[in-house]
Amino acid sequence: MLKTLKTLTLGTLLVAGGLAQAEQALRLGTTAAFAPPLEVAVAEAKKQGLEVELIEFSDWIAPNVSLANGDIDVNYFQHVPFLENAKKDGGYDLIPYAPGVINNVGLYSKKHKAFASLPEGAKVAIANDPINGGRGLQLLEKAGLITLKPGVGYKARLEDVTSNPKDIQIIELEAVQLVRALDEVDLAQGYPHYIRLAGTHDPESALLFDGVDNREYIIQFVIQPEHKNDQRLKKFVDIYQHSPQVRAALDKAHGKLYQPGWES
């Protein structure tokens, strides 16, 4: 696959196919954690005559801004709770088109082998965005470190913590920065795909994982409503979901810490 690297204001453009066909190409935005299997899908699509431009963003805000502005046709990096919160904050008219994978999220530590060894006042890092932060708080409750108000679910906030027996200090950081925080804190919420990319420790070494049965956390292909009948999009999603080459790339990228959301 021909790949041309070009710096853009909102990310890095990975161009699959010739520039002469760029106007007809499906423009797909993603983040680094999901890019490798998508690159394989782009290559498979090219074999079938479909040109796709894969645009890699460095944060979790720009992909929705770019999609809402019409700079890309679809993005793939977020689950429905994250999308709904982004729509609320940004006023975007965006909808989920098709399911992708669902990944485990875990609690990791480089300093402790069990939750019982966490000291009083331990520093614990979770995501600072409203949705992934709620997922982190749910994990802390599952670990027995805190108790949350009944029924708050993924919408949990720090003010919803009703008990904290070890008086842990909960620090909120950008989700993509959590892997770097592990050298500084006792425990951190972690995303195995980012940990694998960082290469700092074993992504399967979490003290606790959440379940992959929470379908609200399935990563979605997201579009503007007027693109729902785009045949290029339909063809690409079919390739992503059913190509043996893409499945092998997903296994390589995520190991055992994911499930295909379209099969669950």
How confident is the prediction overall: mean pLDDT? 89
Number of helices: 8
Give the termini separation: 31 Å
Helix content: 25-40%
Output the radius of gyration: 19 Å
Please write the string of helix (H) and strand (E) elements: EEEHEHEHEEEEHEEEHEHEEHHE
Q: Which word captures the global form?
A: globular
- What is the total tally of β strands? 16
Q: Which blocks of ≥5 consecutive residues have pLDDT under 50?
A: 1-22
| Largest β sheet strand count, sense and barrel closure | 7 strands, mixed
Widest sheet: strand ordering:
1-2-4-3-5-15-6
Percentage of β-strand residues: 25-35%
**Helix/strand/pairing class, anyone?**
alpha/beta
For this entry, give a set of tags.
264 residues, alpha/beta, seven-stranded mixed β-sheet, five-stranded mixed β-sheet, 16 strands, 30% helix, globular, disordered N terminus, palmitate, lipoprotein
What does this structure look like?
The chain starts with a strand and ends with a strand. It is built from 8 helices and 16 strands. By secondary structure, the chain is of the alpha/beta class. Residues 1-22 have low confidence and may be disordered. The chain is globular. It has helices at 35-47, 62-68, 80-90, 130-142, 178-181, 192-198, 231-242, 244-254, and strands at 3-8, 11-16, 26-31, 52-57, 74-79, 95-99, 101-103, 106-108, 123-127, 147-148, 161-163, 169-173, 187-190, 208-209, 219-223, 258-260. It has a 7-stranded mixed beta sheet with strand order 1-2-4-3-5-15-6, with helices on both faces. Strand 3 (26-31), helix 1 (35-47) and strand 4 (52-57) form a beta-alpha-beta unit. It holds the Pfam family Lipoprotein_9. InterPro entries: Lipoprotein_NlpA. Its main location: membrane. Residues 1-22 form the signal peptide. Belongs to the NlpA lipoprotein family.
